[in-house]
Design a protein that fits this description.
The chain has helices at residues 25-31, 34-45, 98-104; strands at 7-12, 17-22, 59-63, 77-82, 89-94. With 107 residues, it is of the alpha+beta class. It has one domain (7-104): Aldehyde ferredoxin oxidoreductase, N-terminal domain (Aldehyde Ferredoxin Oxidoreductase,  A, domain 1).
């Protein structure tokens, strides 16, 4: 069973663009799932001095490694961004089917 689709969907709302980005196996193994990958993208792409409300801030949505599998209770989704309360890195997780559907759509 492979826990990843090997790609992410990038969405730029300011320019109205969508594109796929490949993820290499080493990155997937190192960051393992939605929260880890979200933290990687946040740390690499968002300047620490940037305000949370700046359009250059990211909102990363990622399913867990077992999302979309037959393992019960593993359809969670993670949200990672620079948050409004502290202007620092923050994440939240939710249960339900969104993570599984995200994985089944190829992401």
């Amino acid at each position: 069973m492979n826990g990843s689709t090997g790609k992410v969907l990038r969405v730029d709302l300011t320019q109205g663009k969508l594109w796929d980005e490949a993820l290499d196996e080493a990155t997937l193994k190192k960051y393992l799932g939605g929260t880890g990958l979200g933290a990687k993208y946040l740390m690499e792409e968002v300047d620490p001095k940037l305000d949370w409300s700046d359009p250059k801030n990211i909102l990363f949505l990622g399913s867990g490694v077992l999302g979309g599998s037959r393992v019960p209770g593993c359809a969670s989704i993670s949200f990672v961004t620079k948050g409004a309360m502290t202007n620092g890195a923050t994440s939240s997780q939710a249960n339900g089917n969104f993570g599984a559907y995200l994985k089944w759509c190829g992401y």
